[in-house]
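Weekly structure sync, notes
Attendees: PL, DS, HV (note-taker this week)

Item 1: Suppressor of fused C-terminal domain-containing protein
DS walked through the input record. Source organism listed as Oryctes borbonicus. Sequence as pasted into the shared doc:
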Amino acid sequence: MQSLAKYVFQSGNNLCSGDHVSWHCALDNSESRIQHMLMTTDLQLKSAQTPFGSVDFVQIVGICADELRAAQQWNGAGILEMISRLPQAGGLWHITDMRRGESIFELEPNAHEEIERGFELEGSNLSGVSARCSWAEQDFSKSIVIKEKRDDRNSTSEEENEQMKTAYQKSLYSNNNDRLAGTSGYKSDDGKENSTMLESTELLHVKKLEGVHLIFNLEAGSLLPLAIRGRVKHGRHFTFKSILGETAITLVASSVTGTLVDVDNPYVAQGSWLQVLIPDDLAQDMAVTFHILTTPEVLSLPKTFSWPEKRLSITVVADKL
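Item 1 (cont.): predicted structure, written out as tokens:
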């Protein structure tokens, strides 16, 4: 819990009910399968009002790798509801038993079908992840990388970093899945200009790019099928935020409003935040092409996927960059 608290303070990312944390080691440093976490509202401790505002209590629920992947694919709330139906997995109170040796998929034969059905009907509630990623402007006529935005804190000023952080958090936690907040003004249904544009992002340099090359490590790359099938194909957006710097990559469906991208300018950078428009035909192609990433153990890395006609390429590299 101390390490988790340190992450929250250093990153500024709040943990809310339904969020997941991939930890990759037993929570009690044993040989347990319980190596990851889901967050849920504490069922016993209610919200408290203080002179400094309201305080909500969040409970940590230990889960195994299969359950983490399911939460990423569909949503944390759905997995928590399934756990509550299985006393051996935690039951109604979501009690973590570090000695638990069976996942919900071993305890409930129909679990896979339930999750796949929910994923196809509802898509994924996961709108973004912290990841190892970078992007580069690329001239596809010459196959030349013009400039790469690496995970480097020196790439932007401290002021720009704060602006990027605010804009990214606004987009990630926007209540509207079909709107990307924190980018620019947009027109409401009555045609009037909406004034909710973030002032903090107005001064960031905006650049339209001819072509781009995206780079993800294997853990992030394995989420590309989810980003496309569970988000973009459902008319939503998905963001990869660098864990090492201020770089961010947002994949945007054509129906998402409030973005910087459009059909004529599908790649637009605002500071080190890149927005990538994924039209319907490309999303369909990617959904098929990225299927191989659902079994990352069979991949030969680095693996590059390229769409020259779209002036887009994506490379997945080993986790150890």
